[in-house]
Amino acid sequence: MNLRRLLAMAYKEALQIWRDPRSLAIALIMPLMQMGLLGYGVSLDIKQVPLCVYDQENSQLTRAIVSRFDAAGWFSTTRMLHSEAGIRRAMNAGECIGSVVIPVDFSRQLASTGTASIQAVFDATDVNTTNIAQGYLQGVIGQVNAQIQAQWQAAHGVVASQIGQVNLQPSTWFNETLDSRNFIIPGVVAVILALVGAQLTSLTVSREWERGTMEQLISTPVTAMEVMLGKLVPYFVIGMIDAAVCLALAVWWFDVPFRGNVLTLLAATALFSLVILGIGYLISVRIRSQLAASQVALYVTLLPTTLLSGYTFPIDQMPKAIQALTLVVYPRYYVTILRGIFLKGSGLSDLWQPLLGLVIFAVVIVWLAARAFHKRL
Amino acid sequence: MNATTDAAVFAHGLTKRFGSFVAVDHLELSIARGEVMGFIGPNGAGKSTTIRMFCGLIPPSDGQATVAGFDVGTQSQAVREHIGYMSQKFSLYGDLTVLENLRFFGGIYRVPQSKLAERLTFALSMAGLQGREHALVATLAGGWKQRLALGCAILHRPPVLFLDEPTSGVEPQARRQFWDLIHQLAGEGVTILVSTHYMDEAEYCNRIALIDRGRLVAIGSPGELRNHGLGGVLLEVTAQPLGAARSALLNVPGIVEAAVFGDKLHVLVGPGGPDAQAISAQLLARGLQVGPIHAVTPSLEDVFVRLVSREQETREAA
What is the assigned CATH class of domain B231-297? Predict the structure, then answer.
């Protein structure tokens, strides 16, 4: 291997990226677009859940409870209804996802037995939304309970553990604000790298075949290794810059907490970039049409990264067979590392397994890529 | 090392098969140092395939070939260090400027830094592109592109140069300039194998190899091929009526071929065949009018057309 030839190759490749509006757009604009799109657009939080309330008692206490639903911020149009039929109509029409019914003897029950129940009905068409809305509701009820207990204690001077319902406030770790953005955004970095890296590199060899420049290139003493490294160096630099931009946006724009070590993160990012670029290059060597190469690259990088890496869908909730499959889905290691470093502050001792996974993938892919290209027509 | 590898380019039994199709069929070729060898033949004759095998771009199916003393199969890396190649299709980077292309190939060929500036200047002036160093190559006209491609291919001063139809689609004036460059390089001792399908360009070569359907049909200098390529003497016969004269002559033993050529006949007489007087007598005996008969020098095109059709007749007979 010769450094001069490698540098000539890398410089030429960089010039071509610079001159190609399409490559430039993928390299520079796509990450920002994706970050905005995924950072703002994709949210697993449910805000402004339309809620209906049928307050049969309509006392000071019950009105105070209802006002808490509004105050919580999770529910938007808390609509007051005045009949069971009204609830059915509103639910059928999709005007509200959840309905709360406060029974007519709510205060009396609470005063005499210490417990009272509020009925909640949910539109379970969207199970995910329902579960989350239910969680929010329980949170509000919990606050109500705490207040009732406090008032009881103030009025009667004793701690009444039997008064009020069990506090059901869900406990959360690492993501106290219950903001799914913190969960999503570190994974977005993986998605962007997969998209940009593989899209750009998948074209780099096929472009030379299509334009006829490959025949000239392979008639020169340049080696297959120099071609590969020379082509990948500029894309690696672009990938690392894109990753840095995305990570900076995550921390300073989206306010995702960053608790781990930057160097560990950079090492993992470099490894993941190598895997992605290696895959893009392999595709490019094997498929001589730019269009086909670009499509295959989408399938083997972006799809597993978005669907099977745990980026949006938690791996432990997948069927067992799919969970096993994710072991060979390389982005899962990077997504695990990203979340670990961002949210948990995990160090090398916690992350050695996914890091090892990435190392193995990087070695195998680069080895395959180096052997794939032959200087033959 | 045997004597044959002293040749700059050498092929023995060189064969390339693509499935059942034989693109190059047991080619024998030896090109001396400093020689300009023309590769002539119809499309699909196997010219490009042969050149690509010499450049190590495709492996031979059979036989052997050496370039600058290196085996194309086992020492392809060394071969690539010693050759310059211009492929049939234009293959510089259109999205890079003139200078960027030159610098790229300068780097790929590891032209010593001390010589780089001088070589770049030479290539630019050779291509006539001084002052246009920063033009994108895609914007250049055909002739300039070809000369720049040649400039890139010789930056490392290779002893052997393979040019695959370098002038196709280039205007006559630019073609002429291109051939001047080829001769300039040959004068410096560079061995050049150049394929073309322009017959006039064949005249510029030291020797010509005629290829048809993967086989070497004839090889020699333009003069040799003109004088001996037909395997006989070409006579121009004036006679009336032409058609009757032609059919009469085709039946005369020793006459290989008679073809209408304008208002005259071109008659190819094999060794030991009739002379002008005998032909005249034959025609007069059949009551035809006979004018002057004299020997003519065939054009290269005559020779090639004749050789290719003879080759095809032998094949069909076999």
Answer: alpha beta
A11 touches B at CB < 8 Å: yes
**Confidence (pTM):** 0.76
| Interface list for chain B against chain A, based on CB atoms closer than 8 Å | 52, 55-59, 76-77, 80-81, 83, 85-87, 89-96, 100, 103-110, 149, 152
If you measure CA to CA, which chain B residue comes closest to A5?
B108
Q: Which of A156, A171, A202 is the last residue of a domain?
A: A156
Closest Cα of chain A to B52: distance in Å?
9
A71 shares its domain with A131 = yes
Query: In this structure, are A37 and A56 located in the same domain?
Result: no
Q: Which residues have C-beta within 8 Å of that of residue A77, sequence separation ≥ 6?
A: A48, A50, A51, A96
Q: What is the rounded distance in angstroms from the CA atom of residue B218 to the CA atom of residue B227? A: 13
CB contact under 8 A, A375 and B56: yes
The dihedrals phi and psi of A40, each to the nearest 5 degrees, come to: -95, -40
In chain A, residues with a C-beta closer than 8 Å to the C-beta of B49 are none
- At residue B147, the 3 state secondary structure works out as helix
Residue A129 belongs to domain spanning: 51-156
| Domain covering B3-221: architecture | 3-Layer(aba) Sandwich (3.40)
- Residue A170 located in a structural domain: no
Q: Which residues of A touch B89 (CB under 8 A)?
A: 212, 215
CA torsion A302→A305→A306→A311, rounded to 10°?
-160
The type of residue at B128 is G
Assess whether A66 and A183 both reside in one domain.
Answer: no
DSSP A171: P
Task: Name the residue ranges covered by the structural domains of chain B.
Answer: 3-221, 231-297
Query: What confidence tens digit (pLDDT) does each residue in A74-103 have?
Result: 777 667 888 888 877 777 766 777 788 888
Write the DSSP symbol of residue B241: S
Question: A377 or B162: which carries more pLDDT confidence?
Answer: B162
Give chain A's domain count.
Answer: 2
**What CATH number does residue A64 fall under?**
3.40.1710.10
pLDDT digits (tens, 9 = 90+) for A166-224: 333 333 333 444 456 777 788 888 888 888 888 888 888 888 988 889 999 999 999 99
* CA of A197 vs chain B CAs: smallest distance (Å): 21
A157 in reach of chain B (CB within 8 A): no
DSSP B163: E
Q: Flag whether residue A223 sits within 8 Å of chain B, measured between CB atoms.
A: yes
**Both A223 and A102 in a single domain?**
no
CB contact under 8 A, A216 and B91: yes
* A16 Cβ under 8 Å from any chain B Cβ: yes
Question: How much is the mean pLDDT over chain B?
Answer: 90
Q: Sign (positive/negative) of CA torsion B186, B145, B99, A211? A: negative
My answer on whether A80 and A24 are in the same domain is no
Count how many pairs of residues, chain A against chain B, have C-beta atoms within 8 Å. 81
Distance of alpha carbon A87 from alpha carbon A74, whole angstroms: 20
Mark yes or no for CB contact B57/A218 under 8 Å: yes
Q: Are strands B255-261 and B264-269 parallel, antiparallel or unpaired?
A: antiparallel
Between B5 and A40, name the one with better pLDDT.
A40
Residues of A within 8 A of B148 (CB-CB) are none
Find the CB nearest A4 among B52, B57, B107: B107
A220–B80 C-beta distance less than 8 A: yes
Query: Are A148 and A245 part of one and the same domain?
Result: no
